[in-house]
Amino acid sequence: MVKEISQAVIGRLPRYFRYLGELKDDGVERISSQELSRIMNVTASQIRQDFNNFGGFGQQGYGYNVEYLYTEIGKILGLDKTHHLIIVGAGNLGQALANYMNFERRGFIFTGLFDVNPALYGKNIRGIRVRPMEEMADFVRQNNVDIAVLTIPKTEAEKVASQLTSVGIKAIWNFAHVDLAVPEGVQVENVHLSDSLMRLSYNINRYEAEKERPSGQA
Amino acid sequence: MVKEISQAVIGRLPRYFRYLGELKDDGVERISSQELSRIMNVTASQIRQDFNNFGGFGQQGYGYNVEYLYTEIGKILGLDKTHHLIIVGAGNLGQALANYMNFERRGFIFTGLFDVNPALYGKNIRGIRVRPMEEMADFVRQNNVDIAVLTIPKTEAEKVASQLTSVGIKAIWNFAHVDLAVPEGVQVENVHLSDSLMRLSYNINRYEAEKERPSGQA
User: Fold this and answer.
1) Which chain B residues have a beta carbon less than 8 Å from that of A97?
2) Inter-chain Cβ pairs, chain A and chain B, closer than 8 A
3) Cα B48 from Cα B37, distance rounded (Å)
């Protein structure tokens, strides 16, 4: 059974998963929606509504079983499966992501690293050597790679995305500052860092403007 | 006049800004909401609604003046002002961000880089040397720093955020995998990379499940 869940709900699942993981690590066995609400700073009714999309996860008066809830949300997020990733672009950001061990704990295994810069070929990052871009397509086909991480300039991103989808990549985690056009069925998640920084700038600006308002207008 | 604008609208402004910047660079002078809608893959009515939050930006029948719209949205995002940033955590991710020139084009100037690791002290990244954490508070006070970028482990993030807010930081761009509690008036923008990767994983999972459904149920 596949029920259509809104991307807003999906967007909140990783945060539930993170908090439940911490509760589990702290040895907490059961938690009420009220208590979870207090810790996570969302309303208890929001939590219940979100969980109802997935059948509710157990009786609410008695509280949720933390371990069970953590495991079930992990399954919904597909974290019970192993994913093979390549990183395209072995610059600072690509290397930072390759070095981040926590992704591996969640079943995201980096298997390849590609770059156009010959100076980087053979460089080793956690046992994975940087390969020439020309080897990317074959590597994806031969190594059951399902996710490609793009940490390349936006001028290259469209072309590389198209190469990747032609060899059957399932998903692109896109750090290039451009919206990719991909065939239906290929999942894209954008991390547009500049957009994020601009939102921060907006909120600083707005707060300063509010402060400058004559009092009494608040 | 400060009107309350929803974060959903704010979230879309950087994308408008990005597309308008590209149109401007391509020499496009005027654009209709229909044409912008087609390029950006959102409805024209969404565009008009979003822009109406800011007074509409000019006659719609005649089309928008690209340069004007770009400049005005830039101002709303606070990009007509200069912001001084420090990066706390000079690991791969911190260095990647310090090396990213595009932020500077938008008025975000990196002025300091801090780390707990003495092996990194004095290391130069684009002319900015890595300093010990002990110098952070004084540096923020003396150099008019308004934004701190946290690229440190989550176990340290709360403590460092608290030090930063006590010396008057206005905003935190948080890459640590934790939700920060900050005083009112301090802006926080989170980039939770693991959350983003989990959403991608969810969408892969869901698409596979849909494919496996017997046909006719679609």
Assistant:
1) 193
2) 178
3) 10
Q: Which of B19, B86, B171 is nearest to A195 (CA)?
A: B19
Tell me the pLDDT tens digit for each residue of A110-164. 999 999 999 999 899 989 999 999 999 999 999 999 999 999 999 999 999 999 9
pLDDT digits (tens, 9 = 90+) for B121-151: 989 998 999 999 999 999 999 999 999 999 9
**For residue A33, what are the CA distances in angstroms to A39, A44, A60, A73?**
10, 5, 7, 15
Amino acid in position B182: V
Running DSSP on this structure, what letter comes out for residue A173? E
CA distance B114 to B169: 15
- Between CA A36 and CA A25 the distance in angstroms is 15
Supply the pLDDT for residue A1.
46
Flag whether pLDDT at A2 surpasses 70.
Answer: no
Is residue B147 within 8 Å of residue B131, measured between CB atoms? no
φ, ψ for residue B190 (rounded to 5)?
Answer: -95, 135
ipTM of this complex = 0.89
Chain A contacts of B193, Cβ < 8 Å?
97, 100, 191
For B130, phi then psi, to 5°, come to -75, 130
Chain A neighbors of B191, CB-CB under 8 A? 191, 193, 196
User: Closest Cα of chain A to B94: distance in Å?
Assistant: 9
**Strand-pair category, A64-65 with A128-132:** unpaired
Please give the Cα distance from B20 to B135 (Å, whole number): 41
Name which of A112, A32, A124 is nearest A69 in CA terms: A32
